[in-house]
Amino acid sequence: MMLACMCDLIVAADDAKFSNPVLRMSGVGVELLVEPWELGPRKAKELLLTGDAIDADEAHRLGMISKVFPADQLEEQTIAFAERIAQQPTMSALLIKEAVNQSQDNMGFYNALNACFTLHELNHSHWAQVHENGYPIALEEDGIPNWKEAPPIVNAVKDKVRADG
Q1: 3-state SS assignment for residue 68
Q2: With a cut of 50, which residues of the chain have pLDDT below it?
Q3: Which residues, in sequence order, are CB contacts of 100 under 8 Å at separation 6+?
Q4: How many CB atoms are located within 10 Å of the residue 131 CB?
Q5: pTM metric for this prediction
Q6: How far apart are CA 142 and CA 25, in angstroms?
Q7: DSSP class of residue 150?
Q8: 10: burial class by Cβ within 10 Å (0-12, 13-18, 19+)?
Q9: Distances (CA, A) of 102 to 21, 85, 105, 158
Q10: What b/e string do you get for 22-31 counting C-beta neighbours within 10 Å, with b at 16 or more?
Q11: How high is the pLDDT of residue 9?
């Protein structure tokens, strides 16, 4: 999810799933916090605190992704979408993109990213300080399951605590 959200437009296959299970895997938290901007604060908290996933339809409904195509048509449809955009006047398209980026920055996006990374590094420092060996992430003895044995990522479902439970 974190990498996809660095793109201007996100196109996904209809069977795609998006998650950021970093908390349950390391106990550190996110390095690049885009979820509140992409999904809204409450859904961001839910997904980051549980490590659950959302499917492509939910990601589209929330505005995180632009298009959802059948998996067997993903490449063809993505190229057609890109070609449609490429037909627009280059300078106008660049200025629209810059206007949206500046709007995000004026809403605090840039400062939020900086603050998030500072908190992320503070958490690394915390774990390094509490572990005798200086290991900078949570360990099993800290309550984080071994990521190789952790339960699978499941979809976030509105009326269930955990989708497979």
Answers
A1: strand
A2: none
A3: none
A4: 15
A5: 0.80
A6: 12
A7: S
A8: buried
A9: 29, 21, 5, 34
A10: bbbbbbbbbe
A11: 95
Domain boundaries of the chain, sorted by first residue: 4-142
Q: What is the pLDDT of residue 78?
A: 97
Fold of 4-142: 2-enoyl-CoA Hydratase; Chain A, domain 1 (3.90.226)
pLDDT at position 130 is 95
Token reading at 89: 């006047």
Q: Which DSSP category does 145 fall into?
A: P
Angle between helices 109-130 and 90-106 (to 10 degrees): 60
Determine the length of the chain: 165
Contact 51, 1 (CB under 8 A): no
Task: Return the structure tokens found at 105.
Answer: 């920055």
Q: What's the rounded Cα separation, in Å, for the pair 84 and 71?
A: 20
User: What pLDDT is attached to residue 146?
Assistant: 84
For residue 161 the two structure tokens come to 């605590």
Residue 104 structure tokens: 């995000």
Cα–Cα distances in angstroms (integers) from residue 165 to residues 18, 25, 58, 93, 157, in the given order: 20, 20, 21, 47, 11
Residue 26 pLDDT: 78
> 């037909």: which residue's tokens?
87
- Identify the bridge partners of residue 155 per DSSP, sorted by sequence position: 53
